[in-house]
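Look over this entry.
=====
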Amino acid sequence: MDHSAAGGALMALLETRGLVKRFNGLTATDDVDIAIEEGERVSVIGPNGAGKTTLINLITRMLEPTEGDIVFQGESITDRAPYEVVQQGISKSFQTASIFPELTVEENAEIAALGAEHGSFRLNFFRHRNRYPEVDDATRRTLEAVNLWDQREVPAADLPYGDKRRLEIGIALASEPDLLLMDEPTAGMSPEETNATVSLIENVKEELGLTLVLIEHDMEIVFEVSDRIIVLNRGRVIAEGTPEEIQGDPDVQEAYLGGVEL
């Protein structure tokens, strides 16, 4: 995929331009300009109410912006429907596990892969699944990537919490996105589950070459996995830079922890 712009300048994979979202007079995002390069691992951090989840929901088209534009792969997606954005190459894993509990692990991944290949889930799919070898291939790749292939026949409801979250990440990966947005992927996890998920995030970047945007409250994880960090406060970008730059930024320390060093 060619991401070079005219004159040889590198074009960002994703950009937001002057992005504003207001809810009944409350400004959740306020003139947000960000640019995510292909292959980057970027974390978006900030105190509660900073506008992080709103920003992700605007990018995935779950919310309509009040003002501004969202550009992906050089094209505006501001008027696209959420399913169109997924098919174009943006996927999201949610803050709470979003799975079909009554279906097996494999069937959950198959549904997501079928939607990516054919644009929708077909009701007769499970009776005729042998007609979709490309879906089978994508399903296996996905479950191997999240280390759940050996549990493929287990009902999703029977998985431990950490594995449910891993399956949910797998569902997001099954659409084979160019950009994966992850909203609090380690929320509610034990230390062991958190470590496994951090390893998964690193493997996804290295093995699949994905661009990742991560919302995460655990600063230790953020500093470990991020190439770059964007800091929001009261809906505005107040800083961005490498983990080292953000760690030493006095504005970030003041906004995020009341002046306590990160």
